[in-house]
Amino acid sequence: MEEIMKVDTVEQYNELFGFQTRHPQVGMVDFDKPESQGNYRMTVGFYGIFLKETKGCIINYGKSSYDFDDKTVVSFAPGQTVGYTRIGGMLPKSVGLLFHPDFIRGTSLGQKIKRYTFFSYEANEALHLSADERMVVHNCLAIIRTELQHAIDRHTKGLICTNIELLLDYCMRFYERQFVTRQDMNLDVLGRFEKLIDEYLDSDITLKDGVPSVQYFADKVCLSPNYFGDLVKKETGKSAKEYIQLKMLNVAKEELLHPEKSITEVAAKLGFQYPQHFVRFFKRYEGITPSQYRQAN
């Protein structure tokens, strides 16, 4: 079995690959020399965002691979397992920005970091850049690199965090562009999602697995929950959870029109283990209880 290393800090990462540490909690790394290469798997304790320039290597996490290999951005978050595989006969070129969660604690970036959902995307959901977008990413990284080469002073943390935040905001914009340019693919995913919800609610799966979850449908369409959720939100204006719950609500209304079915039976069909949970769910959306809805209709 392949050994998985545990690398908790940016400094440990630099020592492992022979990079210079200019700041113990944030750093830039360049994989463009033969001596800096190798195959590895590690669980990290920091954030990382890599711009791959060539097809000389595969950077991924989990069990996924890119659907497009060069000119891509891939990112990872603390606690994820990262892999790096060298492709024989090719010299890879990639640049990475690493920063520890302690570095951004108490900053604007620290407060916003959970909004950057792409840190939990799978590797096959990497961001593919145009030439202009690649230039923007390079410029942001260059500013951060320049600041790291400056002696640490009272401005260092603020300036670096501000520019990391700027870089991540641009990545969010570029991902939104990518959702648009892949609209045909996205609509195919939505069509499958719609069909899967119908199949789930029309079958006995609810009796075994309970209320349908975003994770369940993301797995079925082979996407990470975050990427899947962002795709659904972009295309429908609703979160994946809201979309599922509105479908459940429509099914509930249809079922309640059959007087021979008890509230408990309707609740069970939708995956609710306890009828009172179904009652709360229904009232939250409709403003009335299932019994009141049935009487009114």
UniProtKB/TrEMBL annotation:
Keyword Manganese tagged: no
Stretches assigned to coiled coil: none
A Pfam family that the UniProt record links to this protein: HTH_18
Sequence ranges assigned to domain HTH araC/xylS-type in this UniProt record: 195-296
UniProt-recorded name of the protein: Helix-turn-helix domain-containing protein
Keywords, sorted A to Z: DNA-binding, Transcription, Transcription regulation
GO function terms (MF aspect): DNA-binding transcription factor activity; sequence-specific DNA binding
Taxonomic lineage of the native organism: Bacteria, Pseudomonadati, Bacteroidota, Bacteroidia, Bacteroidales
Organism: Parabacteroides johnsonii
Domain of life: Bacteria
